[in-house]
Write a sequence for this structure.
């Protein structure tokens, strides 16, 4: 326990001592106040420190945020057993050792049962408050931690996404200038046309590179223009086939994905008029496919691997759907997932997270309700016992609310932490699963 906790226990001891000294003490002497203060301090520190140590031990071994159900059950069992032992210990020291108003046989014989039970309820109140406070504190810390973590994840995802998109601009420009450099030597007139077309295409690159997703229609139109540039350079050595269903044109893919894959086809394969390279762009299921016949070119310099890896990483930040790569002896195919809507890269699982949050919120509300019920029980019942005993009524009516409400608290605990709603949900799910078979 912290130093602050001991100071609080000291103030509680002092306040309790003043209360009993002025209302239940016949001789107002300094000696009597000192004795009252020592007895109050004994109760406060033994019960307070005992409960505090148990609470800290449970916090370390069974945190509320990780093992809520197990922690709640252990908390209930521990506070009942611990406070029973601690109260009997304090009362024994007080009445048998310090005040010497009872013998050991009389103390355990039943004469002090009501006093012990009254003190146990007071101790349960303090302990329940400590555990409820611990639960709310842990819940608050966990919530703040999760918010910070989600913000960091969002910032990291956005930074990573921006970094990936920024690769496209210099990458496209570098490859286009390589093509232009080759054309200047081979066909100067075609190089002029290529330069004009390249400026048009580069405008599209600048417009789209800041977007997370673009429509397949826009990407196909851009790819056709880019294929026109490649045809300018390779003429009959490269052929293109576009077979994209109209139903998919308004759906989405990552921008410049086709351009990067078309570059890869040209870069890694031989293309001659006698052995032309055939590139097909078509839809297959919920994927946009780019396929080419394999005519592998020997690479003098190792590839930087920007194209395909860039696409894979950008998709991973936007969706759980994977980019698939198929390779055989005859062809190489890349399947890009077609997305029906624009997701947020920092919150791919927003819907599932919202459902999980609602379930967690409902669970927290149930647990808070139980602890509210328990604290009320531990507050009101000792007060009723005190009133019943203080009025010296021979009829001990406090047993009725004590037992009746106690059964209600036990039933509430059983519902929240035992066979309750979660059991019903599991049985419903089991029945639904059986009906599906």
């Amino acid at each position: 326990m912290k130093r602050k906790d001991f100071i609080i226990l000291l103030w509680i001891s002092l306040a309790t001592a003043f209360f009993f000294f002025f209302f239940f003490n016949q001789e107002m002497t300094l000696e009597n106040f000192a004795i009252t203060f020592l007895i109050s301090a004994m109760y406060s520190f033994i019960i307070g420190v005992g409960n505090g140590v148990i609470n800290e031990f449970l916090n370390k071994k069974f945190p509320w945020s990780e093992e809520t159900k197990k922690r709640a059950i252990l908390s209930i069992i521990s506070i009942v057993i611990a406070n029973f032992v601690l109260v009997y210990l304090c009362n024994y020291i007080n009445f048998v050792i310090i005040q010497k108003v009872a013998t050991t046989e009389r103390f355990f014989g039943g004469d002090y049962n009501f006093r012990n039970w009254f003190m146990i309820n007071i101790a349960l109140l303090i302990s329940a408050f400590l555990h409820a406070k611990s639960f709310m504190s842990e819940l608050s810390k966990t919530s703040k931690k999760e918010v910070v973590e989600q913000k960091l994840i969002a910032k990291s995802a956005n930074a990573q996404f921006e970094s990936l998109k920024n690769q496209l601009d210099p990458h496209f420009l570098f490859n286009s200038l390589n093509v232009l450099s080759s054309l200047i030597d081979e066909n100067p007139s075609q190089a002029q046309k290529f330069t004009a077309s390249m400026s048009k295409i580069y405008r599209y690159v600048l417009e789209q590179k800041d977007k997370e997703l673009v429509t397949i229609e826009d990407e196909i139109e851009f790819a056709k223009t880019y294929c026109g540039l490649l045809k300018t350079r390779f003429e009959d050595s490269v052929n293109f086939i576009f077979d994209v269903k109209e139903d998919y044109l308004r759906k989405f893919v990552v921008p410049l994905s086709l351009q990067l894959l078309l570059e890869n086809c040209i870069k890694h394969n031989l293309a001659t008029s006698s052995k032309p390279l055939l590139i097909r762009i078509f839809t297959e299921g919920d994927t946009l496919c780019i396929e080419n016949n394999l005519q592998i070119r020997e690479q003098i310099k190792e590839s930087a691997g920007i194209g395909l890896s860039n696409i894979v990483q950008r998709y991973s930040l936007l969706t759980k759907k994977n980019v698939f790569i198929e390779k055989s002896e005859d062809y190489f195919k890349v399947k890009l997932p077609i997305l029906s809507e624009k997701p947020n890269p920092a919150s791919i699982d927003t819907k599932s997270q919202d459902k999980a949050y609602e379930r967690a919120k409902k669970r927290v509300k149930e647990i808070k309700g139980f602890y509210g019920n328990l604290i009320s029980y531990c507050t009101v019942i000792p007060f009723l016992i005190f009133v019943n005993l203080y009025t010296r009524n021979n009829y001990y009516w406090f047993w009725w609310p004590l037992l009746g409400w106690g059964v209600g608290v036990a039933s509430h605990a059983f519902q929240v932490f035992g066979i309750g709603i979660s059991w019903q949900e599991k049985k419903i799910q089991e029945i639904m699963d059986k009906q599906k078979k």
Remarks:
- The mean pLDDT is 75.
- The domain at 152-337 is CATH 3.30.565.10 (Heat Shock Protein 90).
